[in-house]
């Protein structure tokens, strides 16, 4: 059998060129620019600038607020990732068992996938409105004086809730198709071995879902770190104040609201390193231990 | 007006043989909603008043977004002719000397009359450089004032408080007994810090409030009168006299409009919006209170709001168009219209006199509060302030004040952090200016 391939070496490169050019222009060039800017303090209009070495980085290290935001981002990421995955898995396992009206049930669960993050944030804003939001009223009825935009913990709760709500459908779709790709014979064999559905789930289904789960874990961490920007932006109503925010939102606040180009570049370089580490972790450490079927 | 008519007639005759083309200029602004409609009205009025120039106003979002968009456009060489910059962004744009043409130079080179004394005293120097040359044309000038629910105060049997001592001991307890939250406000850094400084005649920053240059400018907020004020605010909060509804402007204004809060500190520019609403009660306004313990001679306040800056790098004929527009904008008729529709203060004495002569203040006494407060006694400390990265400094204040009011930190710790963070931002800004 002849291996399919190109006759010359240049053709594939030529075909790749448009894609490479896009990556270079929209990713590498701005990234290089950010690294360079992070070593300068520059006048917003571009008139003056001074080289400050690692000052922008040491400034962040010494700033108590940056540490707080990093800690919040970590907690936020863990909570959003955990609850998005856990709820979606629960719903997928239950939906997988539904026979009557299965399609309508599944469609309704996937519905929210179509909502854009800022829109999700806006819906959250309405639900948690200080004077008439239905969810705020509900919280008040159980004695929780819920105040979005006033109380740090309440605003953080709203952010987590809205972000989870927005992400569950994506995970649900993947988990459901993961469940449906588990061979029937394996399930039947398991049925003979274990009577408890709980044990069957943990001993058979869950390990077989691991590749899907791992893929989703990475996707969800990235989502919580970066794609929740729209949710955060809408829920803080454009005023950072004493509200919680994520590291990505801080980059925006300092760079695009405060016009501190050097400081915000240093923060984006830190995030770049974080993403790089996450990717290396994904490919080097974990992929080896999980067997894709 | 006559000058414009003559010059446009001259231009017309010169262009008689060639195709007639109007010079087009653009104006980026941050005036949304009803304010935006009034802005469009002004632009249409200008376009209709002459045949040489056409101005196109473009709404660019919030103040912060407009400034950022203008900066990005300038760096790309695509800047508009006129950009609206708010008080907190003034240091950034004025420090970048090549970015704008000082409005005073622009008007003088284009043959317009410019006399700084024509402008009311409160707005004269806020957007000026250290030598008193006007860099930005004050546009929507406002000041924080005290709005009150007339019925609520009558019910409680009190008058609007003149001093904070009176508020604390007389007004607030009576309002609480009458079933009201006495006080809310919409912008802590602006109302309770910046204008606290000018009202009480206190210096806000070293280097002459920052006007003498960014190098070595340090903020002076970690002081006893200010800390005492915030301590009092937390006590009022505990006593049910004061409620804080978050950093958002509207969240604090709504309870006043709904009649739950009796006294609300907002902008003189809020007047237009409030009078258009069906509030179910009469409202009026008066000056910001002061602490008698701090001063017995309260001064005028700073102007807030924003100014219009002529961006540099434009052809001479477009600059002439910008100058013509500024002249139109500062004419008494246009200023009075803007003042009447929005509540922003008129920037010239002539416009103020026109509004008085027209009986505007007999009909709406509250509309005069802003300009009267801006015309109180002035001092070295009331001219304005000039601090770089001030948008972020305000964010730091908002963050720490929010923490004070939700019990996460103490007043002393909060002011220590504000001082440290703000001074670090100021020194970082100074480094960008080399």
Protein architecture, described:
The complex is a heterodimer of chains A (293) and B (434). With 293 residues, chain A is mostly helical. Chain A has a domain at 75-244: MetI-like fold. Helices cover 72% and strands 2% of the residues of chain A. Chain A has helices at 10-37, 55-62, 64-97, 102-110, 117-127, 134-141, 152-180, 184-193, 197-227, 229-235, 247-257, 261-286, and strands at 40-42, 49-51. Chain A has a two-stranded antiparallel sheet with strand order 1-2. Chain A starts with 9 loop residues before the first helix and ends in a 7-residue tail after the last helix. The mean pLDDT of chain A is 89. With 434 residues, chain B is α/β, with parallel strands linked by helices. Chain B has helices at 2-14, 33-49, 63-75, 90-95, 103-109, 121-124, 150-156, 164-177, 188-199, 206-209, 224-239, 249-257, 271-276, 316-329, 332-342, 349-357, 360-363, 369-374, 390-405, 411-432; strands at 23-29, 53-59, 82-86, 100-101, 137-142, 144-149, 181-185, 261-267, 283-286, 304-311. In chain B, the strands form two sheets. In chain B, strands 1, 2, 3, 4, 5 and 10 form a six-stranded mixed sheet that branches. In chain B, 52% of the residues are buried. Residues 9-19 of chain B have low confidence and may be disordered. Chains A and B meet through helix 11 of A and helix 3, helix 4, helix 12, helix 19 and helix 20 of B.
Chart the SSEs and their pairings.
The complex is a heterodimer of chains A (293) and B (434).
Chain A (H helix, E strand, L loop, with lengths): L9 H28 L2 E3 L6 E3 L3 H8 L1 H34 L4 H9 L6 H11 L6 H8 L10 H29 L3 H10 L3 H31 L1 H7 L11 H11 L3 H26 L7
Antiparallel strand pairs in A: 1-2
Helix pairs in contact in A: 1-12, 2-12, 3-7, 3-9, 5-7, 5-10, 7-9, 8-9, 11-12
Chain B lengths: L1 H13 L8 E7 L3 H17 L3 E7 L3 H13 L6 E5 L3 H6 L4 E2 L1 H7 L11 H4 L12 E6 L1 E6 H7 L7 H14 L3 E5 L2 H12 L6 H4 L14 H16 L9 H9 L3 E7 L3 H6 L6 E4 L17 E8 L4 H14 L2 H11 L6 H9 L2 H4 L5 H6 L15 H16 L5 H22 L2
Helix pairs in contact in B: 2-15, 7-8, 15-16, 19-20
């Amino acid at each position: 059998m002849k291996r399919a391939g190109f006759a010359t070496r240049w053709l594939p490169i030529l075909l790749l060129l448009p894609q490479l050019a896009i990556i270079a222009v929209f990713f590498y060039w701005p990234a290089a620019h950010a690294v360079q800017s992070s070593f300068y303090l520059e006048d917003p209009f571009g008139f003056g600038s001074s080289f400050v070495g690692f000052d922008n980085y040491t400034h962040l290290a010494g700033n108590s607020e940056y540490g707080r935001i990093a800690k919040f981002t970590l907690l936020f990421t863990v909570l959003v990732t955990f609850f998005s995955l856990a709820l979606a898995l629960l719903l997928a396992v239950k939906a997988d068992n539904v026979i009557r009206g299965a399609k309508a049930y599944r469609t309704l669960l996937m519905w929210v996938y179509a909502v854009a993050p800022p829109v999700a944030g806006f819906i959250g804003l309405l639900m948690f409105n200080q004077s008439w939001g239905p969810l705020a009223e509900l919280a008040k009825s159980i004695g929780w004086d819920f105040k979005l935009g006033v109380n740090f913990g309440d605003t953080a709760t709203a952010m987590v809730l809205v972000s989870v709500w927005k992400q569950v459908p994506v995970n649900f779709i993947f988990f459901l198709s993961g469940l449906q790709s588990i061979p029937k014979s394996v399930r039947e064999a398991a049925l003979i071995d274990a009577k408890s559905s709980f044990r069957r789930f943990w001993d058979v289904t869950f390990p077989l879902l691991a590749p899907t789960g791992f893929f989703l874990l990475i996707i969800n961490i990235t989502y919580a770190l970066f794609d929740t920007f729209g949710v955060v932006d809408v829920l803080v109503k454009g005023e950072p104040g004493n509200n919680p925010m994520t590291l990505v939102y801080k980059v925006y606040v300092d760079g695009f609201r405060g016009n501190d180009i050097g400081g915000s570049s240093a923060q984006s370089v830190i995030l770049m390193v974080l993403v790089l580490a996450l990717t290396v972790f994904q490919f080097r450490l974990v992929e080896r231990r999980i067997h894709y079927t | 007006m006559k000058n414009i008519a003559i010059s446009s007639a001259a231009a017309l005759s010169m262009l008689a043989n060639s195709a007639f083309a109007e010079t087009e200029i653009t104006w980026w602004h941050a005036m949304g909603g009803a304010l935006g409609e009034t802005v469009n009205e002004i632009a249409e009025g200008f376009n209709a008043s002459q045949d040489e120039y056409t101005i196109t106003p473009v709404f660019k979002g919030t103040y912060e977004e407009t400034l950022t968009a203008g900066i990005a456009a300038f760096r790309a060489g695509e800047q508009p002719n006129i950009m609206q910059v708010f008080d907190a962004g003034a240091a950034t744009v004025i420090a970048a000397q090549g970015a704008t043409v000082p409005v005073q130079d622009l008007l003088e080179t284009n043959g317009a009359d410019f006399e700084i004394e024509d402008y009311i005293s409160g707005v004269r120097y806020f957007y000026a450089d250290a030598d008193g040359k006007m860099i930005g044309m004050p546009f929507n000038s406002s000041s924080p004032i005290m709005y009150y629910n007339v019925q609520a105060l009558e019910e409680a049997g009190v008058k609007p408080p003149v001093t904070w001592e009176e508020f604390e001991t007389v007004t607030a307890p009576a309002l609480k007994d009458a079933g009201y939250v006495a006080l809310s406000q919409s912008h802590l850094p602006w109302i309770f810090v910046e204008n606290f400084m000018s009202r009480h005649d206190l210096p806000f920053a070293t280097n002459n409030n920052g006007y003498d240059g960014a190098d070595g400018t340090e903020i002076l907020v970690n002081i006893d009168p200010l800390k005492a004020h915030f301590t009092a605010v937390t006590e009022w909060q505990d006593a049910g006299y004061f409620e804080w509804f978050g950093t958002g402007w509207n969240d604090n204004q709504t309870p006043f409009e709904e009649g739950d809060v009796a006294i609300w500190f907002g902008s003189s520019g809020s007047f237009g919006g409030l009078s258009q609403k069906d509030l179910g009660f009469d409202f009026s306004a008066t000056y910001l209170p002061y602490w008698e313990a701090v001063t017995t001679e309260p001064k005028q306040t700073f102007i807030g709001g924003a100014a219009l800056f002529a961006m540099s790098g434009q052809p001479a004929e477009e600059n002439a168009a910008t100058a013509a527009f500024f002249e139109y904008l500062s004419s008494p008729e246009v200023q009075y219209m803007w003042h009447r529709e929005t509540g922003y203060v008129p920037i010239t004495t002539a416009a103020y006199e026109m509004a008085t002569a027209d009986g505007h203040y007999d009909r709406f006494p509250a509309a005069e509060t802003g300009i009267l407060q801006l015309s109180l006694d002035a001092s070295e400390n009331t001219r304005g302030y000039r601090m770089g990265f001030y948008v972020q400094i305000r964010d730091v204040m908002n963050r720490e004040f929010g923490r004070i009011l939700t019990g996460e930190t103490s007043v002393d710790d909060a002011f220590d952090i504000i001082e440290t963070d703000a001074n670090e931002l100021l020194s970082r800004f100074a480094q960008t200016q080399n």
